[in-house]
Amino acid sequence: MGKVSPATPPWLYTAGLNMGAGLLNSAIIALSTAAGVCVISGCAAYTLARLDLPRPGLFILYLLAVSSLPIQLFLEPAGTAVAATPSSRVSPPTGRSSARPA
């Protein structure tokens, strides 16, 4: 293990890990993600505001209702469809070994 000089803050050197680089990488990812979300959300909001919908209140209610549901609720029908395919059905075991006797 390397020596820690007294000038090195303890949160920058922990058991050989470079915590400063990790914190910098995390900050870069967090800030770029937040900026990307703001740009994409702003473009979507502008587009939705410019649409001339016949019943805009119903559309907004739909968006709010769908966004409040958990993502697992939307994944369940996909899992059910995969489970219903013929290739996913497995025949029950017969109790006999498929290996030939020697």
From TrEMBL:
Cellular component, GO annotation: membrane
Primary subcellular site in the record, as a coarse category: membrane
InterPro entries membership: MetI-like_sf
TM annotation in the entry: 20-46, 58-75
Keyword Metal-binding: no
Localisation per UniProt entry: Membrane
Top-level lineage group: Bacteria
Entry keyword set: Membrane, Transmembrane, Transmembrane helix
Membrane topology: Multi-pass membrane protein
Keyword Transmembrane helix: yes
Biased amino acid composition, Polar residues: 85-102
Stated name of the protein: Uncharacterized protein
